[in-house]
Each structure stands twice: as C-alpha cells, then as structure tokens.
C-alpha cells in the first residue's frame, strides 16, 4: 500500500505541474493556489478503481448482456437517455466493466475533470479504439493503406505522422475560407433541389435527411477534390446514392460491432459482412473520384484555378497516397455528421420562429441584396447564425460522446484509473446540465454571443478538443454557416407536425419524418 501511495503521490504531483503549465489563462493567484494544493493531504487521498460506482457485471457475460436485444436494458439507439440515467444513479463518474472483447469504460460527467485530462494529454493521445475499422485498415485492406492509414481508428506514430502531414492544410481558418465560393455553389444547388421536391404545401418529403446527405456529399467533393458530382440533379448518378447508403450502413453497424458480443472476431456475421461491403463501396468509390481528380490536377497548369484540398496536400507532401487517404477519411466521417447537424439546426429554427427571425435579420444586414453571394469577409459578421448552430449542437450534439484511452494510470474524480481503460466524456449529458448552462432546456442562441466568464469552455465540445480535435472542423463549420444562411436568405422554415424526439440513427437526429415547410420569402412579401 505504501508503494501504491507513493505512486499515486507522484502521479498527482505530475498532474498538478502539467495542468498548471498548460493552462496559460490561469491567473498567478490561481497558479499559487494550485501549487499550494500539492501540500494538501487531501490531494494525496484517492480511492481504488474498484470503488468507482456503476452497473454490476454478471458471470461470463459481464455487462455486455445489457446491450443485447430483448434481455438487455441498454438500448444503443437511446444512449442519450441511458447516459443521463447513469449519471442520475451513480454520479459524476461511472464505470461499466466486464465488456466482452473490449476494455472497461468509465463515463465522466464533470467538465473540470475533462479539462484536466485534455490539458495534460500527451503527444500522441489515444481515442477509444474501433477494433472493427482498425482491422479493416490494418489487416483486410492493408495493401491499400500501407503506411498511411489516415487518422480514423489510428493511433501512435502512424496517426501522428499522418496528422502532421495534413493538419496545416486542414485546420487553418484562412485556408477553409478560400472555399467559400465552392461551398456556396453547392448550397445554391440545394436550394434548387428544395424547390423541386416540395409538395403543394411547400413541405419536403419524409426522406429530407437523405437530401441533406446529398448536399453534404456534393460540398465535400467540391472542396476536397474540386469535382461536381451532381448529387442534387434530377438525373443524379445512382453511384452517389450507393455511396450515401454505404456511409449510413457503416455508421449504423459501428456500435453493434463495438458494444455487443464481438462474434465478428470469430466468424463472418451478417452485420460484419454488411460493414465490410459498405467500407469497400466507400473506398472504391472515393478512390475512383480521387484518381480522376489527380489526373485532372496533373493536366491542369492554370495558376488561376483554385486548388482542391487534394491538390494542396499533394503540393506540400508530394505523396498521392497521403492525399487519397485524407480524402477517404473526409468522406467517411464528414458527410453524415455535417448533414445531420444542418438538419437539426433547421428543425430547431422552425420550432423557434422568433430565433429564426433574428437570424434572418442578421443575414439581411450582412447580405442586403436578395441574391447577394456570401464572401469570406461576411462569415465573421454572421454571429447569430453561428450562435444558432452552437446552441443546437449544445442541446443535440450529433456525436454525443468523446473520449480517450488512458495511456498511463490517471487520477480522475478522486479514483485511480488504470492504463488501458477507455474514459468517455459524456458531452450530451454535460451540455444539458443546469450548472453549466442555466435554462439548459431552452433554445437560447444568445448565450453564445458574449463571453461572460460563466460558461465552462469544456462543457460543450461538439468537435472534440486538443490534438485529436475533428480534423475537418473548419470546413464543417463553414459549410453549415453558408447553407443555413442561404436557406434563410430565400425561405422561412416552418414545422407543423408533432414534435420529434431525438435518437441515435446513427447520428443524434430527430426521430421520424422531418416534413419541414419552406416558404419562399417572395411569397411572404406578397401576403
């Protein structure tokens, strides 16, 4: 026990030093207080990992049985409600152990603890592993990925080397805004699509989310490859719909393969086969687009043509494999997430017409002419539109949790969590807590307009944080701002049906047909 206490004391000493160094915003007084805590005996007291509260495992099946149909009480499509239920029962830290074929999970509901973990993360932080995608990239299709497996489900030196090669292009706001025109063109095409699919009541069909997927796919293709796929045309190629279907299948099967009994590791289950077929479809389709884009790039010598992301990475690295794998990762995680986010924002604006009116007034001030194009310089002035996006993602983040796999023993919430445990940050539950966001159940974009020092910076992290922050964040934010602004510039959005609950399918999205009504602003003026 003495040796264990010395180990814990050393961990805490390092933790305090790292946290103090990394948080440059702390005042000198706060730093002195933190140093003073080193001598506080209370800081040397920790509780063993076994004491972390949580649902008890049963022999043989552990806690995995809870995710099984019929007999289990953990519904994958209702993880949001489960997360809140676990917090209400067990508190700010909850352990789910005994998961067959995977490490324990520890759920964290404290923004201060999340900040501490992020502030002290190492050079190559590990996200919770995705064994299914890891196996696909490193075993099944290793001949394609080779030494450049990308950033999704990749860790260690491979992840660090790849991320280092592409992040200068991906994470600079200046670079992202160079594509404002291309993103607006895809958004204008989406407006034309809305006009075509509306019924006599000006409502869009039940599969409106699929139309949003088409817009997102078209936007990413324009930015990443400088190619127009024509997803939103009446005669759109069936291949683009197959790609969208494959992306949805991929996301839907991830939680099944990762949380339920991993029979796929023993034999080819139907779910595993669907998953592999979907990934093959995604890889083959994107590879075809990428190959064509690289051929055009070699043939084009016009210096006035805006470079695609593929071209920019190729110009920096001179490696077509890096550029191709980056494009694949962007399509893999960028279509469903961005389109679902925009759909959710439109739904919330339809439910809150007074907030939509404020957003429209801002757009009209920034873009006074009815058909005014959005330019890069306009983006900073669309503050309320951005606030509407942030508030929607606070209340309904499309990915409701994030996390880290502990690479060393770490004290979290007063407990000594051992190396290898997957620590999950429950962002959805945290960002809907009253202590972090007063009146948390109300849609209040205004809360994001001023930094009053009250809002905790780590209580809402829809794009993650730190070294493994979403690589496509700048482009996703820009796409959302532009398409929502163009829609509100032309339409008033309404919803006249029963209010929808949210669920995981596979993103966090309204459950049921989203029959939004798009009323042309011209028609409103005539009335």
Description:
- It is a single chain.
- The protein is an alpha+beta fold and 527 residues long.
- It contains 19 helices and ten strands.
- It has helices at 2-22, 28-36, 79-90, 111-119, 131-140, 142-145, 156-170, 173-177, 180-197, 208-225, 238-259, 270-299, 309-317, 320-351, 353-366, 383-395, 427-431, 473-490, 521-526; strands at 93-96, 105-108, 402-405, 410-412, 415-417, 422-425, 491-494, 502-504, 508-510, 517-520.
- The strands form four sheets. It has a four-stranded mixed beta sheet. The protein has a two-stranded antiparallel sheet with strand order 4-5.
- Strand 8 and strand 9 (508-510) form a beta hairpin.
- Helix 9 crosses helix 18.
- The radius of gyration is 24 Å and the shape is globular.
List its traits.
527 residues, two-stranded antiparallel ribbon, globular
How many separate helices? Answer: 19
Beginning-to-end CA distance, first to last residue: 79 Å
> What structural class do you assign from the helix and strand content?
alpha+beta
The overall strand count is: 10
Overall shape: it is globular
Largest sheet features: 4 strands, mixed
**Share of β-strand residues:** 5-15%
Mean pLDDT, rounded to whole units?
87
- How large is the radius of gyration? 24 Å
- Strand order, sheet with most strands: 1-2-6-3
Poorly predicted residue ranges = 1-43
Overall helicity: 40-55%
